[in-house]
């Protein structure tokens, strides 16, 4: 999952406080993806790429597993976000 130069530039424009806030919002169970989009203008795919660039590989995998568990396994969204590993 590579990051385009345009997206990398967008991530580099975020200051350290905004980066920390985005990571906290992504980890939080109470914050929806719509709230992240409204505040930072990032889609869920862009948030995934940001988390991969900010976190280590093991932390990223743990975050993805936690995120998948938040969805009901019978829902359509759960099928979209199914873990490949």
TL;DR?
The protein has 85 residues and is an all-alpha fold.
Describe the structure.
The structure is a single chain. The protein is mainly alpha-helical and about 80 residues long. The protein has one domain (about 5-80). Helix content is about 65%, strand content about 0%. The chain contains six helices and no strands. The chain is globular and about 35 Å long. The two termini are about 15 Å apart. The mean pLDDT is about 80.
Write the layout of secondary structure elements.
Elements: H1 5-12, H2 16-27, H3 33-40, H4 44-54, H5 57-69, H6 76-80
Strand element count: 0
For this structure, the quaternary state is single chain
Order of SSEs: HHHHHH
Number of helices: 6
Total individual domains = 1
Q: Could you report the average pLDDT, rounded to the nearest whole number? A: 81
Helix content: 55-70%
- The radius of gyration is 13 Å
What summary fits the major beta sheet?
Answer: none
User: How big a fraction of the residues is strand?
Assistant: under 5%
How far apart the termini lie comes to 14 Å
Q: Which parts are unreliable, with pLDDT below 50 for 5 consecutive residues or more?
A: none
| Class per helix and strand makeup | mainly alpha
Overall 3D form:
globular
How would you describe this structure in keywords?
single chain; 85 residues; mainly alpha; 0% strand
